[in-house]
Amino acid sequence: xxxxxxxxxxxxxxxxxxxxASKYLEDKASFMPxxxxxxxxxxxxxxxxxxxxxxxxxxxxxxxxxxxxLQTKKVKQIINAIDILHSLDRLKLAKxxxxxxxxxxxxxxxxxxxxxxxxxxxxxxxxxxxxxxIKDFEHITVIGLMGMASDTNDEALIRKQLTSLKTLRDQLxxxxxxxxxxxxxxxxxxxxxxxxxxxxxxxGRILLTEGL
Length: 212
Known about the structure:
The chain is an alpha/beta fold. It has a single domain (3-208), classed as TIM Barrel. Helix content is 36%, strand content 19%. The chain has eight helices and eight strands; from the N terminus they run αβαβαβαβαβαβαβαβ. It has helices spanning 3-12, 28-36, 47-56, 75-78, 91-100, 127-133, 155-173, 190-196, and strands spanning 17-21, 41-44, 63-66, 84-88, 105-111, 140-147, 181-183, 200-203. An eight-stranded parallel beta sheet has the order 7-6-5-4-3-2-1-8. β1, α2 (28-36) and β2 (41-44) form a beta-alpha-beta unit.
């Protein structure tokens, strides 16, 4: 575990949560150094993998984040096994969650801040209309926005895209007070996301670079 990085983030940004991408951890033993070091937030992007890994760690107080695209047909299978969804990206999905979820699911609305066709999420201009359409849903609480910047070395572009998400969050929070969080920043751009004001980092391989 890259303890130096984690400790630095916790020291300089005490209100930022680190969610570790669990796709890099392939058995229970590989989880244990992180769990024992206090890393209890894990994010998975595959339904079957989350079910398996959740069973491995059932004796630990893990918070499971689903961070991948969630197919509507998979909602019934997984929706009551996760604690937070980072990829609420369409009304059809929201309706299926509302139908299948037992209790309230905290969700991030996914926004396509890079305007790339291969990425999921709402356009910046359509998020508010979506929020209005689900305002009476009983099993979904939108706690924030999630976005992924372009995979590029152009730091100015990354900063512009991440800032657009923060600006939208600030605007929406006036009408929707529950929208407080920003899930943005991964291994390649976490330092920019921290500077812009993220509250949740989704980190993977960078956490594997050092021993405890």
